[in-house]
Amino acid sequence: MNELPTKLSALSLQFTRHLWMNLFFALLMAGLLVGCSGQVPSPKQIKTDNAQSRAGQLMRIAETTRQGGDLGSALALFRRAHAMTPGDIKALIAIGEVAFTIKEFDQAASAYSKALTMDPENLQVLLGYGKTLISLDRPDQALEYFTTATTVNPADHRGFNGAGVSLDMMGRHDEAQGQYHRGIEVAPEAISLSNNLALSLAFAGKYDQAIGILEVFADDPLSGIRLRQNLALIYGLAGMNEKAAKIAAKDFDPAGVANNMAYYAQLRKLSSKARAQAVFGTNTTTSP
């Protein structure tokens, strides 16, 4: 009769041991999970992480597409990435850059404006927004952002260059020339500053000074078409048509030279402010 309680005690002991072993392993696994991740991610965090991962993939594909020259598709991909992670400034900057390149200036301005709300002192955004506003013929607004850029990084000449262009388009040529000179002090090797300074002097009627800056590039095969043709433009504004035609002929056929000469004649009829707006509207060099 004592045999049955003994069997029950053994079974009870076995059950208790099994229960404690399961509890031990459960606590051990919980400890491992906490040790690896700190805490179990919430569904919201998992969703956010997945969105960031997909957006990152889209950004890489978009950048490859941009480098391949398909800017329209790249812009669409950057927009999709931004929709997934609206708080990521990198997608907005990319949208602004690509939209500007394909001359979708309103789209570029919208992207840069949103980016500035995230980081008001982002130099890349300030310069991109300023350049876009120049292309939208809003130099007074552009001046604000270029000026901020010079405060954010006084060692970067691009803010001074953009401020100079803005002031020229507003007819404030003396102030513009001061900005170009400040930029040249920072980066004397930046040819865009000398180019724009020469144009500004020409807008103000100081043709000899303007020609003196650019004529050193006239016979330099490495100077590029822009510098040579800006020298031709200055000769044209000064009424020195023979010299203007000679320089223009270095890069254009007779029909092209004739078109340029007609353009110079039209510019001579404009005010200094209108000349700057006409030239910088199609020939803006606010960056190196």
Any overview of this molecule?
The protein is elongated and about 75 Å long. The N and C termini lie far apart (103 Å). About 5% of the residues have low confidence. The protein has 15 helices and no strands. Helix content is 77%, strand content 0%. The chain is mainly α.
List the helices and strands and how they pair.
Layout: H1 3-37, H2 43-67, H3 71-84, H4 89-101, H5 105-118, H6 123-135, H7 139-152, H8 157-169, H9 173-186, H10 191-203, H11 207-214, H12 225-237, H13 241-248, H14 254-268, H15 272-282
Helix pairs in contact: 2-3, 3-4, 4-5, 4-6, 5-6, 6-7, 6-8, 7-8, 8-9, 8-10, 9-10, 10-11, 10-12, 11-12, 12-13, 13-14
Write a concise keyword list for the protein shown above.
mainly alpha
Please give a quick description of this structure.
The chain is an all-alpha fold.
- The portion of residues forming beta strands comes to under 5%
- Helical fraction equals over 70%
Major sheet description: none
* Topology as a string of helices (H) and strands (E): HHHHHHHHHHHHHHH
Taking the alpha carbons of the first and last residues, their distance comes to 103 Å
How many whole angstroms does the radius of gyration measure? 32 Å
Structural class: mainly alpha
Instruction: Output mean pLDDT.
Output: 86
Compute the number of helices.
15
Got a strand count?
0
The poorly predicted ranges are 23-37
Name the shape in a single word.
elongated
